[in-house]
Structures are given as structure tokens and as C-alpha cells.
Amino acid sequence: MSMIIGWREWVDFPEWDIKLKAKADTGAKSSAIDCAEILELPNNRVRFTVRLDRKEKQLITLEEDIVLRKRVRSSTGHPTDRIFVETTLLLAGFEKKIIVSLVCRKRMIHRLLLGREALGGDFLVDSSVDHWATPKRKPKKKEG
Known about the structure:
Blueprint: E1 3-6, E2 8-13, E3 18-24, E4 31-41, E5 45-51, E6 59-65, E7 68-73, E8 79-91, E9 94-103, E10 112-114, H1 116-119, E11 123-126
């Protein structure tokens, strides 16, 4: 059984302790997260800085294993070589492992794009609804 989501939803990455507003894009095959810096490290690792907001006031630097390298065609039609990492996605209580490409999305509205590989089999997107499964405003952090 698949969960219905809107074309935009709040998602968590619990392993990274971050929450982002994501755009569900059934036209995109892979997912992409907005990174300010991407630095390849020895032993097939990568250090990257995620932009949590458009104004670059909130940044978080993470380090992960590289799980895939692939040429991806952007929405403008330009192919680029990208690095992919794996993490856990948490959306409206549903948790799954996904791979996400690291790329500069600073000119885009959403810091995170969820493509078909992340959505497929688990989520159905209602493109007429903005935030079906999560609130429109950023959920407040739990105290305690």
C-alpha cells in the first residue's frame, strides 16, 4: 500500500538530524539535495555542506561514503557528473533508505528534490495538493 503525498512535503533525514521542504518530482528519476560545497575525500568518501534555507543562514557539513557516481541531465538539459550518497528518509512516519545526488540547487526554490527512485513503490503524489501528509509550516522542534 502506498502513502499519498502532496507535491511538496516536509521530510526528515534522521541520520543527519535535518528537516527540509521537498518537492516531489515524478519527472525526475533521481533525487537531489542542495549543497554549497562538495569535497571528495580519500577512501571513497565525500564531505558536503547542505543548505537548509535559500538565504544560506543555516548550513550543515556532513561526511558520507560515496555509493554511486552517475551522469545526470539537469532540468535545463545539461549533463553533469554527480556524486550520490545514501541516507534514511522519513516522511509522515514512513522511513526508507534512498540515494540522493549532491548538487548546487541555490537558484531553485526547494533545497530537496525527490525523484521517482525515492518515491516509487511507497508514495503516490497528488500533484493538486500542497502538503497532503505534513503541515504547510515547518513543524516545531520537540522540547525536552
